[in-house]
Specification:
The protein is an all-beta fold. The chain contains no helices and eleven strands.
Length: 123
């Protein structure tokens, strides 16, 4: 069983930056695809960005330019850097991992989820 633990959320002023972290208890090349999703109040959970073992990344259209996903050197932690935060970025941010080397933008493709970390952007 894989355990995912997110951290780094909080209340941030608009225009500032934030870095979220997700640590996984187990990750191999074939189970390496990890992604960030977010869910705002009253909305569906949506894909933000994904990454695999070889640092191949993918982003939702809205995330290109302000969001950056990355691996640490040990491949045990995935980061999501967000710049120029906007109140519309307010959401619970979830980390997810799937038993595949390919990231997917479809939430149902993921096998493991973290508990989520709240990000609130104040104007």
């Amino acid at each position: 069983q894989v355990q995912l633990v997110e951290s780094g959320g909080g209340v941030v002023q608009a225009g500032r930056s934030l870095c979220l972290s997700c640590s996984t208890s187990r990750r191999t090349y074939t189970t390496s695809a990890m992604s960030w999703f977010r869910q705002a109040p009253g909305k569906e959970r949506e894909f933000v960005a994904g990454i695999n073992w070889n640092d191949f990344t993918s982003y939702a259209a809205f995330a290109k330019g302000r969001f950056t996903i990355s691996n640490d050197g040990a491949k045990s932690t995935v980061y999501l850097q967000v710049s120029h935060l906007d109140p519309e970025d307010t959401a619970v941010y979830y980390c997810a991992q799937r038993a595949s080397s390919c990231a997917s933008s479809i939430r149902f493709d993921y096998d493991y989820w973290g508990q989520g970390t709240q990000v609130t952007v104040s104007s």
